Here is the input.
Amino acid sequence: MIELEGVPELIDPVMVAAFEGWNDAGDAASAAVAHLDREWKGEVFAALDAEDYYDFQVNRPTVFLDGGVRKITWPTTRLSVVRVGDANGKGRARDLVLVRGIEPSMRWRSFCNEILGFAHELGVEMLVVLGSLLGDTPHTRPVPVSGVTSDADLARRLDLEESRYEGPTGIVGILQEACTHAGVPAVSLWAAVPHYVSQPPNPKASLALLNRLEDLLDISIPLGELSEDARAWQLGVDQLAAEDSEVAEYVQSLEEARDTADLPEASGEAIAREFERYLRRRDPQTGPGVASEGGLGDSSFLRDTTSGRTRPPRPVSKEPRDPKEPRDTGGDKGTPGPATDADSADGGKPEDGPEDGGR
Here is the structure.
């Protein structure tokens, strides 16, 4: 039984998670959750024991000086809570439980059980996992973001894709499957990152994930400098592409394929959705969300994560290609490979979903 001493009762809480590693091309997903935590000044209330889940030869701890005293930061997964305002301006608040860390090296089932234990104790209504993958999508066009769920009813209700992927998976796919077995509604949002500019950061992809999260949860997210960072990123890539004629020609071919595929998407519904987002940001009554200087305004829910607590005995039952792996133009039928020319028409998504797996 996980004890959350000092954590106030949460209002309509939704858990939003992202993990560095295989599911995080361009660091877009982890940067999006970090942005939420920073803008709303989240208070960390728990951290998973690093000894249980991480190989320190793979994810090294770091040493830093704090007032002349040497300290160590261990790689782990941390949870924080923020309170945000309602998007329609009626003053209703809701809470987000932010989960940010590194894809674990071991004991994935125990890892998911522990995350779900927190979700159960906090009364989380839904879990949203953010991810990003490499795709044949041009950097000059809007970032494709797909929403996926294993719950058929949830897919119909929220207009999401129902996952039918089979193949290798990462922690995002394992966590979503664990939610299904535990009866917790779960959604994953995937942004496609151009494979030819995969190095982090990618603020444009992070921005696209946050925009889709806004629509899903009907909240307004303060963007800070993220929009300007996204524009600067695109201009920088434009300049690099212009210096290489072969890259410029390739980008043009991706643009043509993307524009052909997206032509039906230029619908009244898509335009209305963008206009609603504009109005939500423009109306001062809706604001960017209500958050006190201390997250929920009460530092008392910071707790000693070394205190003895046991994990809840909860059973746990195409993934994005590793952004650090070289692209393989051949591809084994049993292993997710890069999107083909035919795939580029839908923004780098494979036939059955938004990622080369992850579900």
Remarks:
- The chain is about 30% helix and 20% strand.
